[in-house]
């Protein structure tokens, strides 16, 4: 029988599901599974990707909420359903006879019938002075997340990744004054034609550093000494999935190196799911939450099938060991 609540005094325990990562994907999966009265533990290292951002957007009823506040609310909600939250880092996940063994850096071990990995990704930033310091403040990433707050202002796009061209074209929806600094990015003839047609101005030259004064971005300095004045800039980082746990388990990947799942987050390894930015770099917070919900639904369905199969097998085994009723025995009395 499934327990209604978890044994919170059990330092090392067996769970129906262990969720690794307590972002929107992991917490929403835990919420659904907790409400389904599954025994669930969530393990998180406390390093969310959107920590530098002061607000998140595009999440119905939560638009403008600080990301940390959303996570605090989520942890409080899952606790109401007996989901256990553990602060720590998972070092590895190993297959075992009873499912999976989750080994944490502090030596603790958890056993789970199913595992959901929602460890997100990290943004690899270019080695340009000032970039790391201004990241998430006035050096931004996602137009859908941040462009409305800087609408109608002069904007710059740093050409450090191929996605910068699309980013510059997109930002014209929020501002009539958008420049692209190609930096070391090679632009095709078609790129230049599209940018010119869209009204995006190119400023050629290699970027030396961001100019900061009074804890504010003031411009972008080029190696030839020119300074392009801008108070807000966008940069498309290189997304690196935190998928080491999935890689060690042998989960299949696509040609771009990202773990492959079906629509529910099921990986190629039985009993292992993944959700959120660890498998989709484009997933916003609201998208990741939906992916977690879909994974939780599918995981519970699989556990239900397993529970029913076990119950049927036990019933058949029990029936096979019971003596036949005397009235039903062939050749018995009364025949």
Structure in words:
The protein has 335 residues and is an alpha/beta fold. It has 2 domains: 14-123 and 238-307, 3-Layer(bba) Sandwich (FAD/NAD(P)-binding domain), CATH 3.50.50; 126-235, FAD/NAD(P)-binding domain. Helix content is 28%, strand content 24%. Helix 1 (24-35) packs parallel to helix 2 (67-79) and helix 1 (24-35) runs parallel beside helix 8 (285-321). The longest helix has 37 residues, at 285-321. The chain is elongated and about 95 Å long.
Multimerization state: single chain
| Count of discrete domains | 2
Q: Mean pLDDT score, rounded? A: 91
What is the overall silhouette? elongated
For the termini, the CA-CA separation is 44 Å
Order of helices and strands: EHEHEEEEEHEHEHEHEEEEEEHEH
Radius of gyration: 26 Å
- Major sheet, described briefly? 7 strands, mixed
Beta-strand portion reads: 15-25%
Per CATH, the architecture of the largest domain is 3-Layer(bba) Sandwich
Query: Count of DSSP helices?
Result: 8
* CATH hierarchy class name of the largest domain: Alpha Beta
- The total count of strands amounts to 17
**Level of helix content?**
25-40%
> Any idea what the CATH superfamily of the largest domain is called?
FAD/NAD(P)-binding domain
Poorly predicted regions are 1-11
Secondary-structure blueprint of this entry?
Layout: E1 14-20, H1 24-35, E2 40-44, H2 67-79, E3 84-87, E4 90-96, E5 99-104, E6 109-117, E7 121-124, H3 131-134, E8 139-140, H4 143-146, E9 155-158, H5 163-171, E10 178-181, H6 189-198, E11 201-202, E12 207-212, E13 217-222, E14 227-229, E15 233-235, E16 238-241, H7 244-249, E17 272-274, H8 285-321
Parallel strand pairs: 1-2, 1-6, 2-3, 6-17, 8-15, 9-10, 9-15, 10-11
Antiparallel strand pairs: 4-5, 5-6, 7-16, 12-13, 13-14
Helix pairs in contact: 1-2, 1-8
């Amino acid at each position: 029988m499934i327990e209604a609540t978890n044994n919170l005094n059990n330092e090392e325990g067996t769970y129906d599901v262990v969720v690794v990562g307590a972002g929107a994907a992991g917490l929403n999966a835990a919420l659904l599974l907790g409400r389904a009265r599954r025994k669930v533990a969530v393990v998180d290292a406390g390093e969310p990707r959107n920590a530098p951002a002061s607000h998140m957007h595009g999440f119905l009823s939560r638009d403008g909420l600080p990301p940390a506040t959303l996570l605090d609310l989520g942890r409080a909600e899952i606790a109401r359903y007996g989901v256990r939250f553990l602060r720590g880092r998972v070092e590895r996940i190993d297959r075992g006879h009873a499912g999976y063994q989750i080994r944490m850096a502090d030596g603790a071990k958890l056993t789970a019938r199913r595992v959901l990995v929602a460890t997100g990704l990290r943004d690899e930033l270019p080695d340009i002075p000032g970039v790391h310091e201004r990241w998430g403040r006035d050096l931004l990433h996602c137009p859908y997340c941040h462009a409305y707050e800087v609408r109608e202002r002069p904007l710059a796009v740093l050409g450090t990744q191929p996605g910068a061209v699309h980013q510059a074209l997109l930002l014209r929806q929020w501002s009539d004054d958008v420049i692209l600094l190609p930096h070391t990015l090679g632009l095709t003839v078609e790129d230049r034609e599209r940018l010119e047609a869209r009204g995006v101005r190119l400023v050629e030259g290699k970027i030396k550093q961001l100019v900061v004064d009074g804890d504010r971005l003031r411009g972008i300095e080029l190696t030839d000494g020119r300074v392009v004045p801008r108070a807000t800039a966008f940069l498309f980082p290189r997304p690196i999935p935190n998928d080491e746990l999935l890689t060690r388990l042998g989960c299949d990947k696509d040609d771009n190196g990202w773990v492959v799942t079906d629509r529910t987050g099921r990986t190629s390894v039985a009993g292992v799911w993944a959700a959120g930015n660890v498998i989709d770099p484009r997933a916003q917070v609201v998208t990741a939450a939906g992916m977690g919900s879909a994974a939780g639904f599918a995981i519970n369905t699989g556990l239900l099938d397993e529970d029913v199969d076990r119950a049927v097998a036990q019933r058949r085994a029990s029936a096979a060991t019971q003596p036949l009723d005397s009235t039903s025995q062939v050749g018995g009395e009364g025949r």
